[in-house]
Amino acid sequence: MKSRVRLAACALLALLCACGGDSPTNGSSARFAYISNSSLFLEARRVDPNTGGLGSGTTQAANVGGISAAIAVDPLQRYLYAVTATGDIAAFRFDRVSGLLTPIVGAPFRAGIAPSAIAVDPLGRFVFVASSDGRNVSAYLLDAATGGLTPVTGSPFFSGPDPVALAVDPTGSFLFVVNSSNDSVTVFTIEPSTGMLARVAGSPFPTGLAPHSVAVEPSGTFVYVGNFGGNTISGFALDRATGALSPLGGSPFAAGGNPLGMTVHPSGRFLYVADTGSGDVSAFTIEPTTGVLLAIAGSPFPAGALPQMVALDPMGRYAYVPNRGADSVSVFSIDASNGALVALSASPFAVAPHPAFVLVTD
Questions:
Q1: Identical fold, 29-63+233-362 and 86-206
Q2: In the predicted model, is pLDDT for residue 263 greater than 50?
Q3: DSSP 8-state symbol, 180
Q4: Which residues contact 98 (CB under 8 A, 6 or more apart)?
Q5: Among 117, 185, 246, 322, whose CB has the most other CB atoms within 10 angstroms?
Q6: How far is CA 205 from the centre of its chain?
Q7: Cα four-point dihedral sign 132, 133, 137, 142
């Protein structure tokens, strides 16, 4: 399976090279932060490449047609997708230089009832949307030429009660769906040519109380689930042949109050989770052979009121935390040696009311 991870990375690199001017190494490209909130618009802010701070004033406000819960971008950062409370997927073509979002022909695309999360597979073939009221996951084929979405045969796929979070493993082989109402995570295999989903044997796997987030370590070895109601993080070893999950030793691991959105550092060394109940960010090192989580010195790190999730810039230098109760985004630099968070002097940055999700492009 390690060879499959390497093949996936090589395939993505080949795609990046084939894109010429759209490559992330193109000096003319810029970095942007897109922020969902309680309005019908995505707020766009230019990101200072030297400090990680958010520029003053909105660069662009893209109309998504409804309050947006989550945002995702394809691996080549050509297309941006946002799920909305109206049951739609807003879709845009992304300009790497200006940050301008132009609606894709045919958008918005229909999603399920009350879509709550969205994920794009690492090779940019498929898009997955969880519908919390529909108890299922909708799967779509992503047209690489246009960004358009076409429902996968058999979609939607039943996952469990109140699916609220999604993640795809680095090879694009498995989809993880957190079911909040029955304290479990459903694991699906992803058929590589069609995108059809099939449950793995033993799925769903039990988690802690009221799970609300899931993250996969970049090598695809470990999976973590944040338990909102239990103030813990469940850790699992992933059988990369079958997709089965086995609890890690010492799991679940203590987190702060009501852990919500969670992410793993691109290096695979650190994990961060927004504790919405305690207004901070819990930070952990990931033991590379066992996956055990160890609290980083100084953790938890203060954020604002009702932090919702933790977003990292693609290079893993900065962390962005939307504070829904404070109408702000806290921005931290990340100490590369130990994973500690250091708030920028200008942080938090005021944004549009009730920010819920941040996505930072390169």
A1: yes
A2: yes
A3: G
A4: 30
A5: 322
A6: 21
A7: negative
